[in-house]
Structure formats: C-alpha cells, structure tokens
Amino acid sequence: METNPSPRTGFPLIISVDDHTVEPPNVWQDRLPKKYLDTGPRIVRAPLKEMSFLGGRFSPVMGTPGSDDGPIGDWWVYEDLHRPLTRLDTAVGYSRDEIKLEVITYEQMRPGSYDVPARLADMDVNHVQSALCFPTFPRFCGQTFTEASDHELALLCIRAYNDWMVEEWCGPDAHGRLIPLTLIPLWDAELAAAEVRRNAARGVRAVAFSEIPPHLGLPSVHTDDWDPFLAACDETGTVVAMHIGSSSRMPSTSKDAPPAVGSTITFANCCFSMVDWLMSGKFERFPNLKVMYAEGQIGWIPYILERADVVWEENRGWGGVADKVHRPPSELFAEHVYGCFFDDAFGLRNLDAIGLANVLYETDYPHSDSTWPKSREVGEAQMGHLEAEVVERIVRGNAIELLRLSPEGLWSP
C-alpha cells in the first residue's frame, strides 16, 4: 500500500470524501433476526419489465423471476420495494457511450463496487489512499428505511448496515483505507442521537443526512426537532455528510426533462440546503457542528455567500433571522461548512472566495460521473496553477483534519 505521494508526479495521494459501496447480497440476511429474513432486504434475480428516469424520478418495474419478461438483473426486494442494480450504480470501466440506464447483475459490475480487496486495488490504480463511501440500496441517507412501513425492522436494518460498514467494509481487511459513514433512523431524532453515539464510540466520525429533509416529509433544520441529533453530532465531533439526491428529489425543470438537465444542475439542492443551514441558527447553538456537501461541486459557493451576507446585513430585521444568526453567513460557512468536488476548474480558480480550508476532493467511484481511473490526472490538470501546499490541503489535508484521520491519512477506531 502506498503511503507517500507518487515519486513520478509528486501529486499527493488522494483522500476521497465521496465514493460509494454497492452492498453485498448478505449484508442484511446475515444480521437480521430470522423472523425478518423474508421481509428484510434480500437479492432476487429477475427480469425488468420497464424502467424510466424522467423529471428526476426513477421508476423500475420488476418482472416475474424465471420469466422472459425482459433483461435480467439483480433486484433488492424489501417489504413491497423492488429496486434493481443498474449500470449507473457501477459504471467505472465502461466508456461514456456504453453507460446506459439498464439493469445488471453482480457478475456484470466491477468487483471493487462491493468487494474490499478489489476496491483497494482499484484505489491503487487511481492514486487514492483512503475513501469515505455512501450507500447504494439504503440510498444516500437511508431514505429506503425511512419510507418503510415497519420502523422496528427499519431500525434493525440501519443498525445492521452500520455494523457491516464498521466491522466489514471498514474492517481489518481495509487496512484503515476505508472510512466509515453510518446511517440514522431519520424518523426519530432521539433514536438518531443514540445511533450517532453508538457509532462514535467505535470511531465513526461521519453520518449521512438529508440535504433537504422536508422533501422526505421530515422537519426542516429551522425547527428544534433535529436538536437531539445535532447535539449528539456536536458532542462527538460527527460530521453531517449530505450527498446530492439525499432528499430523494433531484433538481429538474419538468416531468419530461431528460436526465441531462438534472445532471447539469445537481448542485442546486446543495445550494438551497446550505442557505437553510446558514440561516437556521444551528451553527451558533452547536459550535462544534460540521457539515459537508458530497458531489455538489464548489464553483457556485462564492456568489451564494456574497448574497447571503447582503441579505443578512440589509434584511435581517424582517427576514426572520435577527434573533438567531448573529454573525455574517460567510463567517459561519468558514467555520462549519465543506464543499466537495471531483471536477470543478472554475471553483479552483476562485479558491480565495471560497476558502482553502473548506474544500475537499472526491472521485465518486464507481458512479458514471467518476473520474476513475484518472482522478490524479484530472487533479493535476485543474490544480496545476496552485502551490504544492495548497494542493496538499485540498487533496488530503483538509479531509485528515475534518475526519480526524491519522497523519498518514488512515482511519482507525
């Protein structure tokens, strides 16, 4: 395992704060009580009858297992939910023109998507030392379990996922190179706080959360409902990690807009969410709280900070924030918020307006947007104008500090 920058290029080894794991078929079947094995998450091989992805909404229909209703794929089945594995879940290794919305089986995906040794090998190819991974079947912040009808089972599923994440995905075979990211029961802030503390006690330093909770039918961050959860994060130093799409509503303009429209404006949810947090007063109430936006890119941040400061200064008397936001939003951003990018040349030309300490690098493996296996080359091309010390901060130093990794960039409990 490499632990030092490559002597060939001098580019620092990458710590990616946004990669993804495709959960192996046995995650829940190995951990749930026997009475739940027929209703808990499990893999079924079945055909696809039809599937669409328009207006930001993914709509697959599973055929009868064993029939010739359509192309065959592996499906997660949980309660009444049928969710297929798709090429978009694990697109690395395919040319851009080959990446289509189609169902696949585990045999048709790159093993690094779900297998730890294979993942480490793919990280080596990509000049990546360590990686924080978001889930696939639970969705980016566990919406799958939040939407379930049986919350007793859903809580067991969340705990089972977290146990697998800490003990297996980030276990001894990962050699500290995979960094745990856990889930919470979003429907109960007290239970969420307990799960944060349970995982923090075994070294977890990041938890997934929704960028815009009201889109999930949950309270906004402007209420006090989330305070038990936020207090637990504040006390334990657990970073609140929000991935684009963690509100289950990707930005789009119309029901018939092609996916390319939404893909172009994916940053919009991060933008709206960040303004929510900056105007919520939560950073003043929870001074140790840190939040990060995965896959949101960074080029949009300077204007939003500029506008937020103007609104706070000129309109706070009637804007509903005078009694809870006591400092300019840009100052709160500098102390509490992190933007993450994998391809943003414009943002890197405007680092002074964003803040060097607030920028993190990612590779998005194994998704279709991923820069694998050329994340180093992309970074070199876009950061060539920056001093070596600045590149070091962006590519690994800020992540080491935020996630409290070892000086070498590795995770340990």
Uncertain spans: 1-8
End-to-end separation: 20 Å
Q: CATH H-level name... which superfamily?
A: Metal-dependent hydrolases
Global mean pLDDT: 94
CATH class: Alpha Beta
Instruction: Tell me the CATH topology.
Output: TIM Barrel
Spatial ordering of strands, largest sheet:
8-9-10-11-12
Please identify the structural class as seen in this structure. alpha/beta
In N-to-C order, the SSE pattern is: EEEEEHEHHEHEHEHHHEHHEHHEHH
Strand content: 15-25%
What percent of residues adopt helix (DSSP H or I)?
25-40%
Highlighted features:
single chain, 413 residues, alpha/beta, TIM Barrel, 5-stranded parallel β-sheet, 14 helices, 12 strands, 33% helix, globular, disordered N terminus
Topology:
Layout: E1 14-20, E2 42-54, E3 57-62, E4 72-78, E5 81-84, H1 116-125, E6 128-134, H2 143-146, H3 151-169, E7 178-179, H4 189-200, E8 206-208, H5 227-236, E9 239-243, H6 259-264, H7 267-278, H8 282-285, E10 291-294, H9 301-319, H10 329-336, E11 337-341, H11 345-348, H12 351-354, E12 359-361, H13 375-383, H14 388-402
Parallel strand pairs: 1-6, 6-7, 8-9, 9-10, 10-11, 11-12
Antiparallel strand pairs: 2-3, 2-4, 4-5
Helix pairs in contact: 4-5
